[in-house]
Specification:
The mean pLDDT is about 95. It contains 8 helices and 15 strands. Helix 5 runs antiparallel to helix 6 and helix 6 packs across helix 8. The N and C termini lie far apart (about 45 Å). It folds into 2 domains: about 180 residues, 4-Layer Sandwich (Metallo-beta-lactamase, Chain A), CATH 3.60.15; about 45 residues, no CATH class. A hairpin with a 4-residue loop joins strand 3 and strand 4. It is an alpha/beta fold. The strands form 3 sheets. Strands 1-2-3-4-5-6-7 form a 7-stranded mixed β-sheet. The protein has a 6-stranded mixed β-sheet with strand order 8-9-10-11-14-15.
């Protein structure tokens, strides 16, 4: 079931147990646009079935927010113009050349080109995939693009991100809705989850320049402005406390700066910023 933000804007909730991110839908007078295409053809088909129930203009555009498999593996199911930024397009090239039979998937996992979760979901959701080939994106943009759906403009723009180097967001000005994909999350390297400390403030500035009241993230419920502001506040406070690869020193610094213990979220973020320092020291 699609969640309604307004008469023209919806999202399909994420499903953590199935590795499925949230997917967005925006409609104008003559066409509709989706944000992300799902983690498999089955995910995309279920999204399309829900869209059909609304009797909205046909989906003519699909924006892929970044080149992580759970956001694009369903894009073959959409008879629409697939939109990506240049960097996402470059990152997708290896996926376009993949074979998806069982032996090929197992080799990709062994070579660390694909996660075990990705392989398992594709095997379950795509039993007949020996001849599957991922389609090529249609529209490649640089920094920003505006799509008019008919009295409904969608601003598509690249942003700095602590999650990936190729993040795209979609902003609906008259709705004050911002689809963020996964851009506000951290990432994992060599088993360490971390936030890129140097990109935190550039990312926040990129996102806060939009006059938004509602935020749809890839793996969360919808957030209002107050919730997003709290998220930024906790991230900034945690980052300010981390000046080295020492967790103990970071916690002591946080207490000195804020006159209190870090809460659960802040402690999680402190550890993630410390991990960033550890990873940098190893490179």
């Amino acid at each position: 079931m699609l969640n309604k933000i307004s008469d023209k804007t919806y999202y399909l909730s994420d499903q953590e147990d199935k590795g499925r991110p949230a997917l967005g839908l925006v409609s104008g007078d003559h066409s509709s646009l989706i944000i992300d295409a799902g983690n498999s053809p089955r995910h995309a088909e279920e999204f399309l079935q829900e869209i059909e129930k609304l009797n909205l203009p046909r989906v003519e555009y699909a924006v892929i927010t970044h080149a992580h498999w759970d956001h694009f593996m369903g894009m073959n199911e959409f008879d629409a113009t697939i939109i990506v930024n240049h960097q996402t397009n470059d990152l997708l090239q290896r996926w376009l050349n993949f074979s998806y039979d069982d032996l090929s998937l197992q080799k990709r996992v062994s070579d660390k080109q694909m996660s075990p979760q990705c392989m398992e979901i594709l095997q379950e959701d795509m039993p007949d995939r020996d001849n599957f080939k991922l389609r090529t994106p249609d529209l490649i943009f640089d920094k920003s693009l505006v799509i008019d759906l008919g009295n409904k403009k969608c601003v598509i723009e690249t942003v700095e991100s602590t999650h990936t180097t190729d993040s795209t967001i979609v902003y609906i000005p008259d709705e004050k809705v911002l689809f963020l994909g996964d851009c506000a999350y951290g990432t994992t390297t060599n088993g360490l989850f971390y936030f890129k400390q140097s990109l935190l403030m550039p990312m926040i500035r990129d996102i806060q320049k939009f006059d938004a009241e509602w935020f749809v993230l890839g793996h969360e419920s919808i957030c209002d402005l107050e919730e997003m502001d709290l998220y930024w506040k906790e991230l900034i406070a945690a980052s300010a406390a981390v000046k080295s690869a020492s967790l103990q020193k970071a916690e002591e610094s946080f207490k000195a700066q804020n006159k209190r213990e870090p809460n659960e979220n802040e402690l999680f973020f402190i550890k993630a910023f410390v991990n960033d320092r550890i990873i940098k020291s190893q490179s």
